[in-house]
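Example record for the data management plan.
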Amino acid sequence: MKVEREYEELKIESDVDHFKLLTIYIGKHSKLFWIIVFLMFINVIFSITAPLILNYVIEIIEIDNEELLNQLNLNGALLGFGVVAFLAWFFTSVQFHYVAALTARFVRDLRIDAYSNLIKNKIPFFDDQKSGDLTSRIINDTNELSEAGDSIAWVFTSIVRVLFVSIIFVIYSFEIALVAIGFIPIIFFLAYIVGNYERKVSKIWREKFGEVNSRFQEIMSKIQISKAFNREKENLKKFQIINEETYQASVKRGLAIFIFWPMTDLMKHGLMIAILWIGTLQVAEGLPVATVILFLILINYYYWPLITIASNFQDFQGAMASLERISMISFDSNLHEDVNGNNSMPKEISKIKFENVNFSYDGNNEILKNINFEVNKGERVALVGHTGAGKTTIGSLLMRFYSIKQGKISINGTNINDINLLEYRERVSLVSQKVLLFKGTIRENLILSDKTINDEKIWEILESVQAAEFIELLPNKLDYVVSENGKNLSSGQKQMISLARALISKPEFIILDEASSAVDIYTEAKITKGIDAILSNSTSVSIAHRLTTIMKSDKIIVMEDGLIKEIGSHDDLIKINGIYSEMYNLYLSTQSAKFLEKIKY
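Corresponding structural encoding:
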């Protein structure tokens, strides 16, 4: 799409760049924009014509010219005034109907592009962000920008109106025109000072608002833990602190918004007094009283458009703050994953190899140290070790969620970072221990990678991972609606759906991060069979917790403190009587009847 290419080429660093971004989106609907411009000129012409007609009538009455009055037909003139005023109102209404349509399209397009760009960002970006703040930026800040569309329309209309009225002032009285124009820099200087302050406090307010969202989502997502440990009062205190900070920021923002209007109202009365004073002096020199009345009427047609420009400058500053917050997370190409590798994914994955890999999340504390191993086609490799050993990090690197600074990870000798990322992830599948299900039907959750698969094939796969039995018992079966985060399914049921979803994607290489959560023996047996079904015809690396998964592996990699300590088959590692042998014996001892009898008392 043209707009996408334009904003991708735009490097957003300043307000000028933010304004260019706005014009790109408005320009996408240029036809609608020019209709609005045309209506704007019609609106201004009619709105200024009405007081000119009134001035003409008053002038004739003032000079007491009965002949002209008869020719004019006072009733007709007043009717004309009313018709012109009505047309001015009508075209203003039509203009802002189109403005509302343009604004809605602008916000719709921006929100979609902001979201589509946000999800292109690298995983480390999301590690450092709060979900509530991201929600606030994509939803609330784009809503704030809807005001920018109205503001731009009002600004353009007001500029044209001020120009027209200024010309009338100059034609009728050059001195009064100078006084009126002299107020312009004062108003804009005031708007600049207040606007900058508003932008600063608006940015803080939105950040605090995002923190409130984040805290609320966190509390709601962990409500069971809160209740279990009686943390409601403590959570309330923390929420009150953040909410109070948001309130204080809101007060400052409100002050910045509303202080402008009393000050401008004071200046309006000052301008009115100045026009009356100069007008009175000029009446003594022959200026018609009707002209002074015209100037007083035109004050609203001149001064309020000026205030509109100035106040919308304030709104525009707030909009720029919103756009800055959006662009920081969505329109920075440096945050995006580099999907365009120099090489295509090989037709067959023959070998995956880690060579001297070191990795740190923060650049200081190394999580992986000099990791070397390889996985050949068809091999089942299990990663074992205590919590914090680095097993899950290896899985994340294989999924290319993070980039390594030292060493090399390759497929068939080609560095995985040089392979097209989209092609890579089509062939490599992750089965995470944290099962993520979307709100929707079971079918919709299963066919994320292949929407063409038929129900017969789905049931065949569900049968192979032992999930068909419980789904057949659900109301509507495949059309059973899964609630948010799968709350209406058990932990084991969610795991089996996750296994089926992975199998539907027809992966050539699987990274299995086994769930360590406890399930009943019956479900455990079913999940184990499901895992066997997935791993039977694929190359796999399993972050293993189940002894059955480990023992069936062709190769077991034992990790400790980010280092590989042992590599071999189950039998080989038992023979060397090392770390794995100790873990295995500990596992067996905790499952023995003697141990279970001991811990009963």
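Summary line stored alongside the record: Residues 174-221 form the longest helix (48 residues).
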